[in-house]
Design goal:
Blueprint (H helix, E strand, L loop, with lengths): L11 E3 L3 H17 L7 H7 L2 E3 L3 H4 L5 H4 L7 H8 L5 E5 L11 E5 L8 E5 L13 E3 L3 H10 L4 E3 L5 H9 L5 E5 H6 L8 E2 L14 E6 L6 H4 L4 H16 L8 E8 L2 E9 L6 E9 L6 H20 L6
Parallel strand pairs: 1-2, 1-3, 6-7, 6-8
Antiparallel strand pairs: 3-10, 4-10, 5-8, 5-9, 11-12, 12-13
Helix pairs in contact: 1-2, 10-11
C-alpha cells in the first residue's frame, strides 16, 4: 500500500553539485521504494519523488573559506528556506555540513546507513601524509584537516582548495598542490573510491562529526511519516548523535577544528573527540563510552556522551581552539 500523502509527490531539495545529486538520487530511489514504486523505474521515481535543485551561497562563493563568509550553514540556508515555505518536502544534506542548531520548525527526520567516514589522502606520488617531502603543499578548505595535518607535519604548507570533487582533483593533477584530503564517502558515492593513495585512521585523525552520513531534513510535523521512518538507520543515528553532541557542546562551526568518531561495540557506544588549535600545535582529546542497549532512549544517551566529552575539551582548551 502506498504511503504517499494525498498532497502529491515528495519533492526532494538538493544542491546541484555532482556529489549532491548522486547522494540525493540514492535517497530519491529509497523514498520511491517506500512509496511502493520500483526504484529501477526512473520515470516513476522522478514522478513520485522529484529532485528540486537549489543553489546555495556555499556553492556560489568558491574563493574563500566558509568561515570567512558565514560558516557551514551556507550550504543549507536556501534549502531550509524552501522547506519552511513548502516548496520542497525534504532536503538531503551531507551531515557534516549541517549546523548544530536547526531553524525552528525543522528537524533531522532520518539518517540513512552511513558510508565510510574516513578522510582520503590523494597525491601525485607519496602514499601517506607522512611520506610527503618537507615543505610540501597540502590542499584543503577544511580547518580541521589543516590542523590535524599540521599537528602531524608542522612543516607542510597548507593551501586553500575549495570547489567540487572534480575541481579539486583537477587542481591536484595540475600541480597546484602535492596532495589533497577529501571525504572518502564522497569519492565512493561518485564511483571514485579507487583514487585515494591511502585512508586516514579515524581514531588517530577523527573526521568531521557526521562525516559519511546523510541527513534527511524535514518539517517537524512530517518527521514520523512512514516514508521518513523507512529511511532511518539505528546504528548510524546513534553514532551521529554522539558525534553531534560534541559539536553542540563545543559550539563548533567552520571556525573550530573539531573531529569526532563514534562506533558501536555490542550495545556500547565508543567515542573519540578532539579539538586543535588552528595551527595544529596543540591538540585536546577525550574518549569515553556509554552502554546503550538497556536504555529507553539510547539516542539521547549517545548525544549526552558527546556533550560530556565536548564539555571536557572546552573546559581544558578554553579559547585556544577558536579563531
Amino acid at each position: 500500500m502506498s504511503t504517499q500523502p494525498a498532497a502529491g509527490p515528495i519533492r526532494i531539495g538538493a544542491r546541484g553539485s555532482k556529489l549532491s545529486l548522486a547522494q540525493s538520487g540514492t535517497i530519491q530511489r529509497r523514498i520511491a521504494a517506500a512509496l511502493g514504486v520500483d526504484p529501477q523505474d526512473q520515470a516513476e521515481v522522478d514522478r513520485v519523488a522529484p529532485l528540486v535543485v537549489i543553489t546555495t551561497t556555499g556553492d556560489r562563493v568558491q574563493d574563500r573559506r566558509l568561515l570567512e563568509i558565514g560558516g557551514k550553514g551556507l550550504f543549507t540556508k536556501e534549502i531550509e528556506e524552501a522547506l519552511l515555505e513548502g516548496r520542497i518536502d525534504c532536503a538531503v544534506h551531507s551531515m557534516k555540513d549541517v549546523p548544530a542548531v536547526l531553524p525552528e520548525g525543522l528537524c533531522i527526520g532520518a539518517i540513512p546507513p552511513r558510508e565510510d567516514p574516513r578522510d582520503a589522502f590523494l597525491s601525485r606520488g607519496p602514499q601517506r601524509l607522512e611520506d610527503l617531502s618537507e615543505g610540501a603543499i597540502l590542499g584543503t578548505a577544511s580547518l580541521r584537516r589543516q590542523a590535524q595535518s599540521l599537528h602531524r607535519r608542522p612543516d607542510l604548507k597548507v593551501q586553500l582548495l575549495r570547489g567540487n570533487v572534480d575541481t579539486r582533483l583537477a587542481k591536484l593533477a595540475a600541480g597546484e598542490a602535492d596532495a589533497i584530503l577529501l571525504a572518502y564517502a564522497g569519492l565512493r558515492r561518485l564511483g571514485l573510491g579507487h583514487l585515494p593513495s591511502s585512508l586516514l585512521d579515524p581514531k588517530e585523525a577523527p573526521p568531521a562529526p557526521g562525516q559519511g552520513a546523510l541527513a534527511i531534513e524535514t518539517r517537524v510535523a512530517d518527521k514520523d511519516l512512514p516514508w521518513v521512518r523507512a529511511l532511518r538507520c539505528e546504528t548510524t543515528t546513534l553514532t551521529v548523535a554522539a558525534e553531534r553532541g560534541a559539536l553542540v557542546a563545543l559550539e563548533a562551526s567552520c571556525k573550530t577544528p573539531i573531529g569526532a568518531h563514534a562506533w558501536l561495540e555490542g550495545g556500547t557506544c565508543k567515542l573519540i573527540v578532539e579539538a586543535l588549535t588552528p595551527d595544529g600545535a596543540r591538540r585536546f582529546r577525550h574518549t569515553g563510552e556509554a552502554e546503550l542497549s538497556q536504555l529507553a532512549d539510547p539516542e539521547a544517551s549517545a548525544h549526552a556522551l558527546g556533550v560530556s566529552l565536548g564539555e571536557a575539551i572546552k573546559a581544558e582548551a578554553g579559547d585556544a581552539i577558536s579563531l
